[in-house]
Amino acid sequence: MDSELATYGAAVFELDYPSQLAEWLGALGVRPVRPVPGDWNELVLFGCDVEVSDVEGSTV
Fold first, then answer.
1. Which domain of life is it from (predicted)?
2. For residue 10, what are the domain limits?
3. 60 in any annotated domain
4. How many whole angstroms separate alpha carbon 57 and alpha carbon 38?
5. Tally of domains in the chain
6. What count of Cα atoms within 13 Å lies in the side-chain half-sphere of residue 49?
7. Which of 9, 19, 29, 58 is most buried, with most CB under 10 Å away?
8. Is 44:36 a contact under the CB 8 Å cutoff?
C-alpha cells in the first residue's frame, strides 16, 4: 500500500463483507464526521478530510 500511496497519492481497498468498512476505517485511524449509511455498497470516499489520531505515542 505504501508504494501505491507514493505513486498515486491514493489507495483502493476491496471490502468483502459490510463489517469490514468499520474495521478498515479503524485500522486507518479514520473517524467519519457523519455516520456511514447502512447501504454503503456503492459509496465512494475521496478527497476526505481526516483527523489522524496518535497511536501508541507515534507521530503521524
1. Bacteria
2. 1-54
3. no
4. 33
5. 1
6. 2
7. 29
8. no
Phi, psi of 16 (to 5 degrees): -90, -25
Going residue by residue through the chain, which has 60 residues, state the pLDDT in tens, using 9 for 90 and above: 455 455 555 556 666 766 677 777 777 777 777 777 777 766 666 655 555 556 555 544
Taken in order 47, 48, 51, 53, is the CA torsion positive or negative?
A: negative
* SS3 call for 16: coil
Cell of 36: 456511514
C-alpha torsion sign, points 31, 41, 16, 14: negative
Q: How many Å apart are CA 20 and CA 15, to the nearest integer?
A: 6
Q: For residue 28, give the amino acid letter.
A: L
